[in-house]
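USER:
Class, as today's exercise, take the chain set out below, and explain how the chain folds.
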Amino acid sequence: MTSTEARPQRLIIGISGASGAVYGVRLLELLRDSPIETHLVVSKSALITVAHETGLSWSDLKPMASVCYSNQDIGAAIASGSYKTLGMIVAPCSMRSMSEIASGVTSTLLTRAADVILKERRRLALMVRETPLHRNHLRTMTELTELGAIIAPPVPAFYALPKTLDEMVDHSLGRVLDLFDIELGIVRRWRDDNPDAGHATP
C-alpha cells in the first residue's frame, strides 16, 4: 500500500459466551457486503453458545469475516495498538469478558484487543447481556464508562414497531453501528417517516 492509498476501515468484532449469539452472527452478515473490513475473534464459551443458539460452528463463522483469529493468539495484529482500526464491538458481551476488560488483566485475545482499544482511545461498544444486574456488574459498567467504553445492551426499541425478531436484532445492531458512523439503512429512526410529527394539531 502506498502512502496515497486509503487505509482499509477495520472493525474488530468480538463474540463472547453470553446468550445472544445472534447479535454477533448478524453483525457479521450485515457488514459482509459493506466496505468495512471485519476482524473476528470468538471466545471458547461463545462457540458453545453459537452452536446452541444458531446451529453454527467455527467453520461457518469464518467465511463471514474478512479476517479471523484464534482467541489464544495473543500475538495477533489486533493485540497491538499500532494496528489501526475503527474500534471494536463485543456482541454479545458476557459479564466475565466485561470484568476482564475493566480490570486490564486480560487472558485472551478478545479481552486484550478490547483493552488495546481503550488504551488507544478508540471506540469500544459492549453489548452486555445479563439480567438482573447486581452491584458489582453496575460498578464495573461505571468503571468501563469512565475508561471510555460504551455500554450498549441490546434493548429492543419498540417505537420502531418491529414485526419480527430479526427486525429487533437489526435495529439494535444498527444503533450500535451508529456509534461508529456506519450507516447500513437498517435503523427505523424516530419520526424520519413523518416530518410533520413534531407539529401539534390546534
User: Anything to note?
Assistant: Helices lie at 21-31, 44-54, 58-61, 95-103, 109-119, 135-147, 165-178.
